Amino acid sequence: MKWLLFCFLVLIATAQAHKNHKSRVVELTDDNLDELVSKGRWVVEFYANWCGFCNKFAPEYENLARDVAKELPAVRVGRVDIDQNPAATSRFMVQRLPSLYFVDNQQVRSMEVTRQASSILEYLREEKWQAEKPWNQWLSPFSIGMKLLGAVGSFGQKMVSLTSHFKDTVPAWGFVAIGAGVLLVLAVLGRVLAPAQPSPIQPLKEAKKTQ
Question: Quick check: 120 and 57 in contact, CB under 8 A?
Answer without folding.
Answer: no
